[in-house]
Amino acid sequence: MAAATKTHRTLEFRRKPLTVPFCNLERLFDSLERRNLDGVVVSTSYNVFYLSGFHGIAHKSDEPRPYAVILSRHSPEHPILIIADYYVGSLTTQPTWINDVRSFRGVMLPLDLAGKPDDIDRFVPNKAKDAPWLPELRSNFHENIGDACRHALGDLGLTNSRIAFDELRFGHQLGVDGVDIVDGYDPLMYARSVKTSQEIGLLQRATRLNQMAIERTVSAWNRGMSWRELNQTYHQNAVGLGGFVRDPGAMVWGHPRGGDAAITLQTGLEDFEVETGLHILFDCHGTLDSYCWDGGKTWVVDSEPNIQARQIARATEEVAGDLLNAMRPGIKVSELQARGRSVFRKAGVPDADSAIIFFHGLGLSHMDLEQVSSEGIPNADWALEEGMVVPLHVLYPGDENNRMWIEEVAHVTTDGATPFFSWGLNPLIG
């Protein structure tokens, strides 16, 4: 019976082709207009995935770019996707909404033989013969990504334009005379900060996986288990359910002991026994369908909070509940922090000023927020907008038996923030 339940739960997170487009195109084009930009060229993996649905396997972030998406604000109906030849077959499994797909010679085609016009057909599966993008692909096969991008910019009338590149180095490498190269980080993040309904669903799904992995990890604890063993157990649970975690680890907080109340992050090198009564702060990172999960809460190992910690736990729960209700469009981060600290003070906890309350965007990264607005103003004290997904973090520092933490992932609406975790705001005990 246990094995059947595990299989059922694993299938819940089985990957399927995504509905495309799932990006906020309307907000992207608004972003380009606000900044007087004629178009955008993205070549980093997350932005290519965001704008096209294409996410290539086996590519690392510091390798030469094997793909790009080009959009013109003046021809929004004609985006162009450019991919290395060896990625063509991927589009038959994960479709793209872009009909103009172009390609170029990658590292697989031989250098010792003369190139042929039909070389691209080596990479076209039989089931792609009716794909709407196949004619453009065959007629636009280039020697390298630079040639493909320059040709696409010409077709879109962007050779004498102001263009945002999400990687400035790539823009300068193209060397197109007449193109004013602008940093595209903030225009893309402005679009990504407000989620579409498809993205909300992806983030809810990722959060469910994280909660399930945490609960399984707590259930697997036994006396004598080490911190590294606990981390490995979480990793195995997350991956077993269908998610992905990154080296050096998915659990973020460090856990100083011996009465030390310092706020630290773990390095993956620490180790100690996870003893009864210890407060473990679950803040777990990973991805499902390339969208991030985040968050967790305090677990009191095989026990319940002591008298002082119970007061802190109640206060932390009150703060989180009040802030979720207050997280509405227009409110600023500083206002939320002041409000949360006021609740801590009313709860009577010692040194409310020591509490840490912070927020960030969540989506394809843990900072789906523009850093500088279209008016050139730093966006440190940013205001919430309807449709954002924002993790709420509340940390009351303390020693290993009193520190208290909760991170709730929530969808910002006009009625307050809707939490994605289903387990409430109190700590895990036992």
What attributes characterize this protein structure?
alpha/beta, Creatine Amidinohydrolase, Chain A, domain 1, seven-stranded mixed beta sheet, disordered N terminus
CATH class call of the largest domain:
Alpha Beta
CATH superfamily annotation of the largest domain? Creatinase/methionine aminopeptidase superfamily
* CATH architectural type of the largest domain: Alpha-Beta Complex
The structure class reads: alpha/beta
The beta-strand count equals 16
Q: Might you state the CATH topology name of the largest domain?
A: Creatine Amidinohydrolase
Strand content: 15-25%
What is the chain-wise order of helices and strands?
HHEHEEEHEHEHEHHHEEEEHHEEEEE
The largest beta-sheet arranges its strands as 5-4-3-2-1-6-7
Residue-averaged pLDDT, rounded?
95
Explain the layout of strands and helices:
Layout (H helix, E strand, L loop, with lengths): L1 H11 L12 H10 L4 E4 L2 H8 L14 E6 L7 E5 L15 E5 L29 H6 L1 E2 L2 H11 L6 E4 L2 H7 L5 E4 L1 H8 L4 H24 L6 H15 L37 E3 L4 E3 L2 E3 L2 E5 L6 H20 L6 H15 L8 E4 L29 E8 L7 E10 L2 E4 L8 E2 L1
Outline the structure in words.
With 430 residues, the protein is of the alpha/beta class. It has two domains: 25-192, Creatine Amidinohydrolase, Chain A, domain 1 (3-Layer(aba) Sandwich), CATH 3.40.350.10; 197-429, Creatinase/methionine aminopeptidase superfamily (Creatine Amidinohydrolase, Alpha-Beta Complex). It contains eleven helices and 16 strands. The protein has a seven-stranded mixed β-sheet with strand order 5-4-3-2-1-6-7, with helices on both faces. Strands 8, 11, 12, 13, 14, 15 and 16 form a seven-stranded mixed β-sheet that branches. Helix 2 (25-34) runs antiparallel to helix 7 and helix 8 (197-220) packs across helix 9 (227-241). The longest helix is centred in the middle third of the chain and has 24 residues, at 197-220.
